[in-house]
Protein 1
Amino acid sequence: MARHTVLGQWHRRHGANPAEFAGYEMPLWYPAGARAEHLAVLAAVGVFDTSHMAVLRVSGPGAFGLLQHCHTRDLGALLPVGDPPRCTYGVFLDARGHVVDDAVVYGLSPDRFLVVVNAGMGPRVAAHLTAHAPGPGAVVEDLTDRLGKIDVQGPGAARLLEPLLADPDRAFRDLGWFRFRGHFDPRAPEAGQVQWRDGTPVLLSRTGYTGEFGFELYVEAHRAPAIWADLVEAGEGRGLLPCGLAARDSLRTGAVLPLAHQDLGGRPFVRNPWTHALPLGPGGTGYTKEFLGRAALEAAEDAAWTLPFAGFDPRKVPSGASVRSESGRALGTVLTCTTDMGIDRVEGRIVSVASPDRPAGFTPRGLCCGFVRVDEPLPPGARVELCHGRRSIPVEIVSDIRPDRTARLPIAAMRTRPSSAPSPEEPP
Amino acid sequence: MKTLDELILPDDLRYTRDHEWARIEGDLVRVGITDYAQDQLGDVVYVELPEPGQTLGRGEEFGTVESVKAVSELYLPVGGEIVEVNAGLSDAPQLVNESPYDRGWMVLVRPSDPAEIEGLLDAEAYREHLEGIA
């Protein structure tokens, strides 16, 4: 029997097409359909119930040492805690260098951190952290069932939230990419920093899983239905759609973001598009800290390569299909393969519905895209075939998939009165 | 997702257990997928259809319909020659969702054995089949 999030009743009442995911019954899409939901996030705004994701609290004098040992990012970058504080994306590795899960770590203070991992992974990651603590003094608690999480994603996200927050100017001040503010726990010292208009404390994070501008909101579980309803109501006339897992998957793939166990599992975490999650030194060589799994990564000299690809039409193959050279030689396997419905080829080049230079009347059919794991380091532009049964689809190895994404645009440019021209922000 | 009561299953069509429909039009049979099939698949993003002129047997794969969720094979309800395919689906595959029994049709077949259509389900039998898998 699948579990439901606190928003499960809303999803059922609003015609969600359900699917079981990591033990939860979640919306795959709502009546508007996955294509409309995907496009809403590129052009307007979408809201996602992500309350199934697991949240751990790691606290105590040993908290920093534990996470610094287990997470791949150098968490010293989160300290001292700024205004607004920072969070960072990385992975937890085992001694073989394989991914236990990927995780965003939020630094609230030197002895208080939040760790957000995948749905259903809370107990396993908590056990992994507890087992590998380098010293005493860290307490790991699973807060998942006490929290609601709502992602508000798309270029209209800040404008949607402005009238719903008690003090949007304070909430949004200097809130760059991978910065956050506030807390969901009314007893936390940060709780007053971001409040819903009804006073509900919110942890507001400038992050997401779509590649587009937006936020992740963490609130106490019993507050989530009212906040979701406020968002949907405020989004009327703004192109807002509630979005399901299908749009989430196609958006994250076009943004070259991995799905942990499909794209990262079962092999050392090297030679993939996400090695920025490792604590690499200047020039991308050498590691700046010790961490669990480091020795295995340094020894992984014969590892396969994980590379992004994009096709020439919407056709796709299932995960696990084979990858062959144009001459039919076996090269590897398909990890993720989905259709980004907001892009198409224009004279060979990939163009998005959000591209400023898109042709007039551009209506994309969508492009197949995803990740392959292959035995050789194919360069961008290399052509390979994805083969499944009688189907053989030509695709191109690429360095990026959906162009003109908005995730890093400065928040000031996304508010009701833009105060500066958009330009990309640097990653933290 | 539609409930059984919300599904449109016209009485003048015949159906397969694989969720194709067939409509007799003179000595030809028009074929597509049912309202149930399009609702289960979600947004259709691509439809692969055969070349007109091919002759295929009953139950043979004549193409694929690709949605955001999956790639599904299409099986011919009656054997025969493909005399026409719906070329409009290459630019507007969403017609399969918007109009499964009309603008979203897929192929027009000249049956080799018109009696084969009698072996297909009528609307009532197809609805019972759906009740069995719901």
Protein 2
Amino acid sequence: MQVEQIDEFRWRIPKRGKMQVEGLIFASAEMMAEIRQDQSLQQVVNVAHLPGIVGASMAMPDIHWGYGFPIGGVAAMDGKKGVVSPGGVGYDINCGVRLLRSGLSRKEIQPRLRDLVTRLYQNIPTGIGKGRSDLRLNRQELTRVLSQGAAWPVERGMGEEEDLEFIEEHGCLDGARPDLVSDRAYQRGRDQLGTLGSGNHFAEIQYVAEIYDEAAAAALGLFLDQLTLTIHSGSRGLGHQVCSDHIRIMLEAAARYGIELPDRQLCCAPIQSPEGQHYLGAMSAAANYAFANRQVMTHWARESFMQALSLGPRQLGLEVVYDVCHNIAKFETFVIDGRSRRLCVHRKGATRAYPPGHPQTPEAYQEVGQPVLIPGDMGRYSYVLVGTERAHRETFGSTCHGAGRRLSRRQAKKQARGRNLLEELERKGVLVMAAGMATVAEEMPEAYKDVSAVVDVVEGAGISRKVAQLKPIGVIKG
Amino acid sequence: MTYRFLDHTADMGVEIEAASFEDLLAEGLLALTDSLTEVEQVGLDMELQVDLVAPSREDLLVDWLNELVYLFETESVLFGLAEIGVEEESGGWRLRGTLQGERYDPDRHRIKRLIKAVTYHQLRVSSSSRGWQARVIFDI
């Protein structure tokens, strides 16, 4: 694979053969040596073949081998002539991250930490099984969730109107078509609203361990030692089913539209075709389910904090800092060669990172830019960044999304054998409660790369700016 | 009939070998159950019928395994055995199967991990003089 270094953090794969655009990878030299070892660069090249792709087939420093698209991939398609691909979004549609800030410091809650983690674990269903019995949806209500997104729980008293201001797209994608979501997806989604799921999903109590930019941290309402909560989850079985349904449709459609696929999982259809429109409508509905899911869990997290700490909502002040999607395709407008263009931006394991002054950046953050939330692993740290003008110009307003795995699940389990991971983590000051010990082993800190290296690359490249580092003290997992 | 799990950094793959295509599908069921829970702990007191049609053998394998993911998620049923018949018909391949399993019981079934979906990524189904082989990757 021919890869040319552009600068310290940028690498180019020149156009060749039927590539429509070049490949652009953000990574350090050290990372690039590692990236070359799997097939993810070939996936960057494969995505560059898709009809209507604009600019470059991009990959963020947390790139790794995915299905069809690499994880960490960004591809913007021309809104009229381009294609949309379910593989460019992934199975967990609108998997994303929400950060909440409290008015409390770590010291204030440390004596009650066990109780707090226990309450969270009791109130937010994790792992297998259905959601809470006090939130069972009939088809009509589920249809409303799919249309309204995060506004649905807020209208029912699960959250504040103000929460919506601090969610990407205000917690609702336009163009959602619940009528195009299959019965099977409805079946899977009916009892899962307000559930965390398993795998790498989590809810984590953290504290602000470091601040890199005082002014930006103040604008985001963050201060040293402050208690925060991060929720990482997505659209659950409903989203997985929407993806499976439409991959199947598009495998057939791609052949019919004469689109050559280097990998079947890259299947796609023209955005303007019936198949493309149907996928976008169903995918947007699933994305709204994910927004609602994180909103419901936010409400239960607030209740958990109030119960464990015997506080009222005002004293607690658990407010939404921001909520980002990292598996999504949506229409966004960018100026390219002096011309404003509406593009369908696929972010598969990548985060939107809009600059200061952008109309989609919340009013309160206009001076600093849109918050970007980058989880690490449950033993080390996560980061809060903000978007930049350069990202808007160069990466369709996109940046990285996480650490990326270092060990396969099998390798991780092997390394965990004979160890008491919960005890190890507790000794490091992290209290973990999980539905399954196998998940804890597969998700242990050593299974992940050091997220600080990823964050340093996007900052070094100028596509995000570091604001704060968060360290975990309590985690619930599936 | 055998299967073995493959290393895939983010997720999990499986390679399956069997004498016939039908056995390959039945073995796929065991591999899927084995990645969810301890397969030997799954009883066989429930019976369910499945009828699927797919345009190719590859698609049929993915649809079949996705059907099991769906049934586990919506009906909480884990499967330990399948009797499968596959026929070619116009428009593709038809699978008729009788599945045996039991309702998930948190006290007896330790869940290893959950599967989001069965993918088409690097999907392969082939036959040789040694029988049938397949590779399939699960999204975790």
